[in-house]
UniProtKB/TrEMBL annotation, chains A, B:
PANTHER family linked: CROSSOVER JUNCTION ENDODEOXYRIBONUCLEASE RUVC
Native source species: Amycolatopsis nalaikhensis
Cellular location(s): Cytoplasm
Gene name of the record: ruvC
Gene3D superfamilies: Ribonuclease H-like superfamily/Ribonuclease H (3.30.420.10)
Function of the protein: The RuvA-RuvB-RuvC complex processes Holliday junction (HJ) DNA during genetic recombination and DNA repair. Endonuclease that resolves HJ intermediates. Cleaves cruciform DNA by making single-stranded nicks across the HJ at symmetrical positions within the homologous arms, yielding a 5'-phosphate and a 3'-hydroxyl group; requires a central core of homology in the junction. The consensus cleavage sequence is 5'-(A/T)TT(C/G)-3'. Cleavage occurs on the 3'-side of the TT dinucleotide at the point of strand exchange.
Stated name of the protein: Crossover junction endodeoxyribonuclease RuvC
Family: Belongs to the RuvC family.
Top enzyme class: hydrolase
HAMAP family reported in the protein's UniProt record: RuvC
InterPro entries recorded: RNaseH-like_sf, RNaseH_sf, X-over_junc_endoDNase_Mg_BS, X-over_junc_endoDNase_RuvC
UniProt key word DNA damage: yes
UniProt cofactor(s): Mg(2+)
Record flagged with keyword DNA repair: yes
Length: 194, 194
């Protein structure tokens, strides 16, 4: 399975394509950073990111897109721009019918380094090791995009199974409730049943 | 000039088209709310909004798009979704070469009611009065979208003139600085000049 990882941002948007193989084997297909000029207006910055991401989707044909989930913890203004960049990426994926999953930074760090609190250097080092890269992808956003794609490849089968199990449990609960309601109605109105 | 006002949101996204006439005359062309199901995934909600906004742009052919500027003041999670909805609207406008301007809620309130702290009821009442509407546009997001379009029609000429004046002033400052630098260089190195 091929995954496009995206570390969204208006100034620098990291893109990384990773192929998953048997077991935990992963291979780097492409990695780069899209930049948009800070003095351009928001709409044109989003357009620049959207166009480039669509170009990557056409060129590399990923089966899924993994985007970093943003939290407005530090700088709210930056977080808004980051959320918007992630939004246009999700939109481009939805237009092509590609599944999009958002992963938190700690999920990504935990997936590649074993610790949700790993620092940038540790994440970059693990990305290099896992993908057999001789040089570190620069800037950090590029390495983060690859880490996101790896995280997705490793987490997704588990996440999908969990979601399926939850859906089954919810369906069983619904059926059970409907039966209870029918039984209660029947007890109240025994004549209505034939 | 025809303006599409957008009060962005994932659950309810207000859309309003207003024509500006001579002076302060304004006319309501269309108003509605796009809803996306809260249990759908983010990418598909954004796609739903984007598709509907593009349909409106094709149908009503506005000359500009006015979007509410979002602040992460109350609920950060909601604000992120709102920012993303606004982002895909800005993207759709940029794809069509339409100018997009973001107005803050207080700019919009001040434009239609004279007070930046007007409440929802006051904004709705003024929107009805200014557009000669017999019934209040519902929900409030629809009225807000119309208020945004009116705000844009009234503010934009002033904003554009101000931006032009600022650009001229910046250009003059640049020219002046360049002359100063040249004079300083000349004073240091009189032989270099011919």
């Amino acid at each position: 399975m091929r995954v496009l990882g995206v570390d969204p941002g208006l100034t620098r948007c990291g893109l990384g394509v990773v192929d998953g193989g048997k077991g935990r084997a992963v291979r780097c297909v492409a990695v780069d950073v899209v930049r948009t000029p800070p003095d351009a207006d928001l709409a044109h910055r989003l357009l620049g990111i959207s166009d480039e991401v669509e170009r990557w989707m056409d060129k590399y044909k990923p089966a899924a897109v993994a985007v970093e989930r943003v939290f407005a913890q530090h700088n709210v203004r930056t977080a808004m721009g980051t959320a918007q960049a992630g939004g246009v990426v999700a939109l481009a994926a939805a237009r092509r019918g590609l599944p999009v999953v958002f992963h938190t930074p700690s999920e990504v760090k935990a997936a590649v380094s074993g610790s949700g609190r790993a620092d940038k250097a540790q994440v970059t080092a693990m990305v290099m090791r896992l993908l057999n890269l001789e040089v570190a992808p620069k800037p950090a956003d590029a390495a983060d995009a690859l880490a996101l794609a790896i995280c997705h490849l490793w987490r997704e089968p588990m996440r999908a199974r969990l979601a399926e199990a939850e859906a089954r449990a919810a369906e069983m609960a619904r059926t059970h409730k409907a039966r209870l309601a029918a039984a209660a109605k029947q007890a109240k109105n025994p004549g209505a049943a034939r």
